[in-house]
Automatic annotation (TrEMBL):
All residue ranges annotated as the PLL-like beta propeller domain in the record: 179-496
Domain M23ase beta-sheet core: from-to ranges: 52-141
Domain of life: Bacteria
Name the UniProt record assigns to this protein: Peptidase M23-like protein
Pfam families the UniProt entry points to: DUF8189 (PF26607), Peptidase_M23 (PF01551)
Keywords on record: Signal
């Protein structure tokens, strides 16, 4: 990376605090946090775990609320024939809880849930279902084909079935920022993906016509040409789009969740790059870089008006910017310039910001993601390939480590359905990807992913399958998982070339 990554200074510790775990039913108050759980639902056990039944059935009326049994990340939220609607949650200890036959799902892939948070409503969907019930499975090891007894798992953590779910408000799970760039994508409130591509003639837009489904034709939106884009959800579920060019900054927003869009409105002056994230209280916060460093602007109330632009006390000039979120809801900003890499973080959820701190040397592009256990992972590209740096615990970082990969690449990252981080790198001649071989673990070798291009971004469908968008001088392509370990070929988004980038 222009050499500086090999000379990186040790990053100052990031002040993270661990998530608190709500008390479980029974005598869990005396148990360590990792051995607490929450009651999954109200009802009676209609079938226990045994050699012919991989889980426990808890029966009750259609529409009975279902709750996460522990903190974790949603890795599957979709539909399958046997289960109907189903959900998987990966927990920090590596265990997986699985919920089937629901009539409604309230969480999406990538959401972080807390123990006792409502995630679905009970139903009777799927094949061979005799009445409304929750089928709950607990997986202890992904390499096995059979789960462990959910009743024993819950009892060890203080919950004995049948049980009574906790009452009262639950902490709102973090909303992780979407990746910024000249191609961005996010899910509307109804689960359909939307994608925006910046071209010389302005911003272009396409959307899934049904959840996990086919795509609309491209729609030109106008706005600034050759812009850097960012997207974030308002507290009420409406997406908001930000477009920054060298001379102007504009934004537009959905008029209703999953609905149509406003016209463009002025948001500020020009700059180099932008990123957007959501505060713990639901207010969007926007960062932008320019010749004088980093500035930010934020909503004064959720879904409401905006502050004025404020200087942040420095940061690398004309830097590439990304945001991520710690498990306790604090935003963190990473800014990569040609000669230096710096970061800043909120000192409290929805609160003020730290000073800028040295994070490494300069480079070409960056991507930031989070492990299944909440630790942040940062990747940066330069002339000798891709490097990464990761939190070793809640208060310290590793040194920079080389991973190989293409030189001076555009980077993007997402998480697989079981919570492993996958990284995509594209330069003018090649596209490659690498992924964690185990949850929270080391990465494998880089593998070919396609030809060269100018921009890349990765996102997940509502059913957990990843979809990757890439651009070049001929148009915009996408490639998607046909299963959870197989990929389609690259193809036009909707049988047309779409917007191009030089």
């Amino acid at each position: 990376m222009n050499g500086p990554l090999s000379r990186v200074l040790a990053a100052t510790a990031v002040l993270l605090s661990a998530l608190s775990v709500p008390a479980a039913t029974g005598s869990a108050e005396a148990r360590p946090a990792e051995l607490t759980a929450a009651c999954p639902t109200t009802g009676w056990v209609s079938q226990h775990f045994h050699s012919g039944h991989n889980g426990v059935d808890i029966a009750n009326d259609v529409g009975t609320p279902i709750y996460a049994v522990g903190d974790g990340e949603v890795t599957i939220s979709g539909y399958t024939g046997d289960y109907g609607q189903w959900i998987r949650v990966l927990h920090p200890d590596g265990r997986i809880s699985e919920y089937g036959h629901m009539s409604r799902r309230d969480v999406s892939v990538g959401d972080h849930v807390v123990a006792g948070q409502q995630i679905a409503l009970m139903g009777a969907e799927g094949t061979n279902v005799d009445g409304s019930h929750l089928h709950l499975r607990i997986w202890g090891d992904r390499s096995t084909s059979y789960g462990i007894d959910p009743e024993a798992y819950l009892a060890e953590r203080g919950v004995v079935l049948p049980c009574t779910p906790g009452s009262g408000p639950r902490p709102k799970p973090p909303v992780y920022p979407a990746e910024s760039g000249r191609v961005v994508s996010a899910r509307s409130a109804d689960g359909r993906l939307e994608v925006f591509v910046a071209g010389a003639d302005g911003v272009h837009h396409a959307w899934q016509q049904e959840v996990n489904g086919n795509w609309s034709a491209w729609e030109p939106l106008g706005g600034p040409g050759n812009a850097e884009l960012a997207i974030a959800p308002d507290a009420d579920g409406r997406l908001e789009m930000f477009a920054l060019s060298g001379s102007t900054f504009q934004h537009r927003w959905q008029l209703s969740p999953s609905g149509g869009w406003s016209n463009w409105e002025t948001f500020g002056g020009g700059g180099r790059d932008t990123a957007a994230g959501v505060n713990a209280d639901g207010r969007i916060e926007v960062y932008a870089s320019g010749t004088a460093g980093l500035f930010h602007r934020y909503q004064l109330v959720p879904n409401g008006g905006w502050s004025q632009w404020e200087a942040t006390g420095g940061g690398p000039a004309d830097s590439r910017v990304e945001m991520e979120k710690s498990p306790d809801g604090r935003l963190e900003v990473f800014a990569l310039g040609a000669d230096t890499f710096q970061h800043a973080y909120q000192t409290a959820p929805s609160g003020g910001w730290s000073n800028w701190e040295t994070f490494g040397g300069g480079g070409h592009d960056l991507t930031v993601d989070h492990n299944a256990d909440g630790r942040l992972e940062v990747f940066a590209s330069g002339p000798t390939g891709v490097f990464h740096k990761y939190q070793t615990n809640a208060a310290s970082w590793s040194g920079w480590e080389g991973t190989g990969g293409p030189a001076d690449a555009q980077l993007s990252s997402e998480r697989t359905p079981d919570g492993r981080v996958e990284v995509f790198a594209m330069n003018g001649s090649t596209a490659m990807h690498t992924w964690q071989r185990a949850v929270n673990g080391a990465y494998g070798d880089w593998n070919a992913f396609g030809g060269g291009g100018t921009e890349v971004t990765a996102v997940t469908n509502a059913d957990g399958r990843m979809e990757v968008f890439g651009t070049n001088h001929t148009g915009t392509f996408h490639k998607w998982q046909t299963g959870f370990s197989t990929w389609s070929e690259w193809a036009w988004l909707n049988s047309t070339a779409g917007p191009t980038q030089g």
